[in-house]
Amino acid sequence: MISKVFSAGLFGFETKTIEIETEVSFGLRTFQIVGLAEKSVQEASARVCIALKNSNFISPEKHPQRIIVSLAPADLKKEGNFFDLPIALSYLLASKQTFFETQKTLFLGELSLEGNLRRIKGALAFALHAKKEGFLQIILPKENAKEASLIKGIKVIGVENLKDVVLYLTKKKEIQPFFWQEEKEKKTRRNDLDLIHGQEIAKRALEISAAGFHHLLFLGPPGVGKSLLAKAICSILPELTEEESFDLTKIYSIAGLTNEKDPLIREPPFRNPHHTSSFSAILGGGNPPRPGEITFSHRGVLFLDELPEFRRDVLESLREPLEQGKITILRSKNVLPLPAKFILVAAANPCPCGYWGDKEIACKCSLAQIQKYQRKLQGPLIDRIDLFVFVPRIRFEKIEKEEENLTEKIRERVKKARLIQKERLKKEGILTNGEMEVREIKKYCPIDKDSKDLLKEYVDSGKISIRGYYKVLKISRTIADLKEKEKISFEEVCEALSFRKKEEVEKI
């Protein structure tokens, strides 16, 4: 007798249905899994045999029998820990130890030797796939049930062990479907900007960056608060929309990074990789291909502290995701497109010792060292940064000055500006000013004659490039949105230009 059950596999960021067929016949004792199964899938035969025995079923090892398990389609390489449960159920059906209907059910789960089901990666993606493919229910480990229940319109059954699965399928035990319940108590947003003294210009840059999705670079000596400022951006970013939240949760789910108790990601992520991180850790890659930090920071913030210390190939490879909001990873025959739409916030010292240009502490670096260091702060990546801010040392008297509810005020302005942009750009298929291309900039960023004359002077004198010119227009549009102004005035253009002083980066 040949039995058939349905499972699914992960192939990059795609999920595909896998048909698991099992034939049991008399012969020499063998348990063979065919269909391009990787080692982790091949090892399922040993786990399944012992799990069946410890769940009070007849193990394949008890009788001389030839077992062939086929995973179709055969041309797809199968890997992961998803197939233990469906293989075990397929064997039970083929060996006539039980009978149940399998046609409209998707099975997933790793088995322990005791027969318990262990947590898997990608539960949200699998539930979404099951609904899309017309399955009526998905059966998976109980630890994954809450995450899978985020998808409405499909029955989610979370089980603890193999025995309970069989009892449920044969209608000898009732297991209630899992339904998603929103957390009653919302987490209190942090007020990080309230804890930072002074630095009004840097805070304004953070507000503009958060409102318009603009990339930002902080320059300044050590200890002035560049990293603290960068981390504070999360406190003023709006919560993710429902669509963004689902997209991001799916990414984290496939990578196995979701929280079991509260899997839904509601707030923009903040990722802070170390400058010694490898190319694949930041951009993505490896075998099998895995998302990098730029994908984990999708719709959030990627913070690169000590920017010049990162590998040159890593920094140059950031150009594609910064421009297109995605990255494509090529591995042998596989093409893996990954989302990577993030705000880049970077921080750097002006020289190796950090004190070049500081009024209080003398720089210890030679001219050659400074030139070599600052060459790392030039080139195509820097040209794609929108806002440049020099963060100075603050005086003692500013430490005791505090502005209450500053974070809440800025967060509210950012939220309103985002809503204005969303309404304006809905026909373009984008959400923020930072995502506008030249066509959209010309359409939505008209300026008056005085502003045009000023920008013409800057472009003709070489103070800003053509790319910089369009960035000024985008920033001006965001500043106007923060003020809830329909038209961009000379004032907004001047403020935008104040954040394009690349001389701070290219002084040498």
CATH T-level fold name of the largest domain: Rossmann fold
Strand order of the largest sheet: 11-14-17-10-18
CATH superfamily grouping of the largest domain:
P-loop containing nucleotide triphosphate hydrolases
Measured distance between first and last alpha carbons: 78 Å
**Number of structurally distinct domains:** 2
Task: Tell me the total number of β-strands.
Answer: 18
Shape: elongated
Biggest β-sheet description: 5 strands, parallel
Mean pLDDT: 91
CATH classification, class level of the largest domain? Alpha Beta
So how many helices?
20
List keywords for this structure.
Rossmann fold; 18 strands; Ribosomal Protein S5, domain 2; four-stranded mixed beta sheet; 20 helices; 508 residues; 2 domains; alpha/beta; five-stranded parallel beta sheet; disordered C terminus
Could you characterize what this model shows?
By secondary structure, the protein is α/β, with parallel strands linked by helices. It has 2 domains: 2-169, Ribosomal Protein S5, domain 2 (2-Layer Sandwich), CATH 3.30.230; 192-504, P-loop containing nucleotide triphosphate hydrolases (Rossmann fold, 3-Layer(aba) Sandwich), CATH 3.40.50.300. The chain is built from 20 helices and 18 strands. The chain has helices at 39-42, 44-54, 84-94, 123-132, 142-148, 162-169, 200-212, 226-232, 242-254, 279-283, 293-296, 312-317, 319-324, 367-375, 380-383, 406-425, 438-444, 449-460, 466-482, 490-498, and strands spanning 2-11, 14-26, 30-34, 65-72, 105-107, 110-111, 117-118, 137-141, 155-159, 216-219, 270-271, 284-285, 290-291, 301-304, 326-331, 334-339, 343-348, 387-390. The protein has a 5-stranded parallel β-sheet with strand order 11-14-17-10-18. Strands 1-2-4-3 form a 4-stranded mixed β-sheet. A 3-stranded parallel β-sheet has the order 5-8-9, with helices on both faces. A hairpin with a 2-residue loop joins strand 15 (326-331) and strand 16 (334-339). Helix 7 (200-212) packs parallel to helix 16. The longest helix has 20 residues, at 406-425. The radius of gyration is 28 Å and the shape is elongated. Mean pLDDT is 91; it is low at 503-508.
